[in-house]
Design goal:
Helix content is 86%, strand content 0%. With 90 residues, the protein is an all-alpha fold.
Amino acid sequence: MDWKIFTATFGAIFLAELADKTQLVGIGMSAKSGKPLTVWLGSISAYIIVTAISVLIGATFGKYIKPELIRYVGASIFIVIGMLMFLDKI
């Protein structure tokens, strides 16, 4: 295992997800249901599936498209979404 890639990925995902709306959903669901273990298991299961799909798509795209292009397209999509949110279009 490449610990440098693991640590960079862990840090990026941890910071991106910290206080994200998905965390707020987890807090709300846990408070409402009173069953934090069930909410935790549901959250972990969803993250596993979403991450598996993301990694599969990334690995597939990486074989056919330059990683730089994927990064630029992703950044552009974030900028467009941010602008739309700023203009109250989303």
